[in-house]
Amino acid sequence: xxxxxxxxxxxxxxxxxxxxxxxxxxxxxxxxxxxxxxxxxxxxxxxxxxxxxxxxxxxxxxxxxxxxxxxxxxxxxxxxxxxxxxxxxxxxxxxxxxxxxxxxxxxxxxxxxxxxxxxxxxxxxxxxxxxxxxxxxxxxxxxxxxxxxxxxxxxxxxxxxxxxxxxxxxxxxxxxxxxxxxxxxxxxxxxxxxxxxxxxxxxxxxxxxxxxxxxxxxxxxxxxxxxxxxxxxxxxxxxxxxxxxxxxxxxxxxxxxxxxxxxxxxxxxxxxxxxxxxxxxxxxxxxxxxxxxxxxxxxxxxxxxxxxxxxxxxxxxxxxxxxxxxxxxxxxxxxxxxxxxxxxxxxxxxxxxxxxxxxxxxxxxxxxxxxxxxxxxxxxxxxxxxxxxxxxxxxxxxxxxxxxxxxxxxxxxxxxxxxxxxxxxxxxxxxx
Length: 432
What we know:
The chain is an alpha+beta fold. It is built from 7 helices and 18 strands.
């Protein structure tokens, strides 16, 4: 009983060490994530949401756009409306790592042709406004053209590109808008500025990645298909009343910081399984393992998580896991073979460590199946232990060290078979 209590105290100390390491990882990747995210967005731009163009008229005719008309000088012009949108978008994804976090950054190429119609019977002089993304956004090659593909002079004010145009009664005119920009994590296109009616809407999207996650509440594409190593989708609406947007979440790589944190906080469970298996096998095979040996077993487990948590700063997750696994297994096996022999160290202890340390860690890469995988691993481990030790003579295996129970028929008549005789006392005598 004292031996079991000592092993439990050692396990508890290891658990405290993992809590400290896990807390340090939380600080490195969790609490600092907002600061790192802000830095990345300053470099690559925030999640982008493109708004549709709007049409306004001047309250004061003397004020013109070129002189810097503010938004307060403009009111909606319902007579001239957006009658059609034909948009082509290209997203090119690049994952970039900063600290312990990966960020999905992208380059976007936007090209659209907007059709405006004057539904009134009078001439209309209006201001067309194309909203721009606020924040740290860069627009490269921003250009507005008319129906004859000639550049239109625009003024940038109040987060929008504005240009003034005149429409004859019943006239329809096309204007093109194109630019290149970049952002992170998400891209959206709002069909309307609020709830409104959309006419003759077409949006074509091409990406250089296949995995697409549409944002909750966004509109699903009318058609979608794989396009080589990318993805193609079309949204086609002749007439639609909606407040939803078209939006997608770009594929996210497994973040090493949060992954290392989850693996670290789960480590005491794997060590508990390992201690249980080693204790049962050593008792069944009469191997002498001192509680201090269990302390070094726990240190070998801890070395795995410590090394992995700092390797992922410099290497991909796969190589980091492989290096940490090899180092930890070598530490434990080469140490254990000194007092239990190579066979027991490699077979019972090496396999158990690979299962409860390495494979348990790998299950955290299987998103949605971690709990199920660990549950099956625990059940299969229990089955194996029950089958292997089912015929073990536990009275002999758990007898006090230095004493063995008498075999039946060896004592005087009537003497209990559970009495003890002197046995081997050297702690390493069972080593191979």
